[in-house]
Amino acid sequence: MASEATKSVLFVCLGNICRSPIAEAVFRKLVTDKKIENKWFTDSGAVSDWNVGRSPDVRALDCLRNHGIETAHKARQVTKDDFLTFDYILCMDESNLRDLNRKGNQVKNCKAKIELLGSYDPQKQLIIEDPYYGNDSDFETVYQQCVRCCKAFLEQSHGGQE
């Protein structure tokens, strides 16, 4: 059987310490559980440079841990190379989308398909709100949205193959 080409996805939010590391960790668990982690390269990044090198927000880590997921991600800013190397760049809200489209338009031969992660939500909640100024239940809401969206994205992009 010929090996399938690896696909890649970059999850993006404003600071890369709340929403995008949750989405990255959720997606990583999904592909690992399906035993297709060797077919995907997964990462996350920030539109801003505010938190570069920092671990995710402690509330994001607690939320993931409550669902049996660990992450060692360190925040990073999206680079020009990301637009050339990733198949998909999935972001959390319209502000992220505007920033990414603007940056992507400045990159010659931009390969990445830039979309809202919420566009895959079967419950049609397009925007994944930033929980930073919220409480634990806001992080849980983000987690649940990411689970729904990542499952649907994986199904569509992987053709449901096991």
UniProtKB/TrEMBL annotation:
InterPro entries: LMW_PTPase, Ptyr_pPase, Ptyr_pPase_sf, Tyr_Pase_low_mol_wt_mml, Tyr_phospatase_low_mol_wt. Its EC number is 3.1.3.2, 3.1.3.48. It comes from the Eukaryota. It is found in: Cytoplasm. Its main location: cytoplasm. Keywords: Cytoplasm, Hydrolase, Protein phosphatase. It catalyses: O-phospho-L-tyrosyl-[protein] + H2O = L-tyrosyl-[protein] + phosphate; a phosphate monoester + H2O = an alcohol + phosphate. The keyword Chaperone does not apply. Residues 7-156 form the Phosphotyrosine protein phosphatase I domain. It holds the Pfam family LMWPc. GO terms for cellular component: cytoplasm. The keyword Cytoplasm applies. The active site is at C13, R19, D130. GO terms for molecular function: acid phosphatase activity; non-membrane spanning protein tyrosine phosphatase activity. Belongs to the low molecular weight phosphotyrosine protein phosphatase family. Acts on tyrosine phosphorylated proteins, low-MW aryl phosphates and natural and synthetic acyl phosphates. This is Low molecular weight phosphotyrosine protein phosphatase. The gene is ACP1.
